[in-house]
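Structure tokens please, single chain.
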Amino acid sequence: MLMDRTGEDVSGCYYNRSVKFFYEESGKNISDHWRRRDYVIVSLGMLVCFIVILSNLLVMLAIFVNRRFHFPIYYLLGNLAAADLLSGISYLHLMFHTGPWTSKLSKNQWFVRQGLIDTSLTASVVNLLAIAVERHQTIFTMQLHSKMTNRRVVMLIIGIWLVAILMGLVPTMGWHCVCDLENCSTMAPMYSRSYLVFWGLLNLLTFTVMLAVYMRIFLYVRHKSQRMSQHTSQVRHKETVVNLMKTVSMILGCFVICWTPGLVVLLLDGLGCDSCKVLRYEKYCLVLAECNSFVNPIIYSFRDKDMWRTFKSILCFPCRRDRGGESAARFTSMEQEPLKGQGTTLTELKNGASKSVLGSKDALDSSEN
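Here you go.
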């Protein structure tokens, strides 16, 4: 980044001016002191950020430890949790660089603050689009999980983050108003209005495409379910597919509800609507957008029983470990002792029994599907 420079300004550019200069020029004043309202907003914001970070870490850990979730759709949902995790970190970073602290930021630091939020939102949008495509591919063949290989899933996730990072860096790479002061945004005083229009329209277009895809899927599932026989395995399979679709659709719906007002306000600001008073609604839209990042773990908990059981298992693990520490240590030492008159250890017998149980469980799962 070359935003912070020393020496004389280039004609028409303001590289040597402070962040406060751009705020004053755009009409967005920075408070010189902390007000009671600022303390309340920052305190509540930090509390929400910690909840967002911890809840999405829990989702990612649940997907990692439970083998039932080792499928492409859950990997993408885990990546969505990672995007929400970055969102929580981005807003936490914002809480420590807002209010009167804003005037102390260098231009590079200001672009980092905004870029983190842009990257997390873009990652969420692109990830939701990838989930929509994956569901479209699997539902139209009436499968529960995609046949996509793990390598392709990893490459897709890497591609999602490359696009997100690129979109977060675009303003820093030149699409700003440091050399075009008249085109500066009001809500983001160093962002170009044209960039806000481009970014807002791109995200709204993506929302529209996803809604169209899910509408097509719902119509297909509804039509297909009416023609399916009443065979037990087919009914269970259909219910599983529909339940997963409902969960994903609720995630998409909450995302659109939480982010659309903010994108609309950004568009109005980008189009130069001076009578819209976008600064009046800015904080409310920001809070609504932030709330989306901890809604998804709640949806997982109520919609997916396996996920909820995994959450409880993870959260209760320290308690069980403390209560069973002594007996677990004793059992571990006993496992190493060979059985009298036999060459087999208790560990080997336990592993064999586990394999037998898993084998019968896999057979049951396959018969149900």
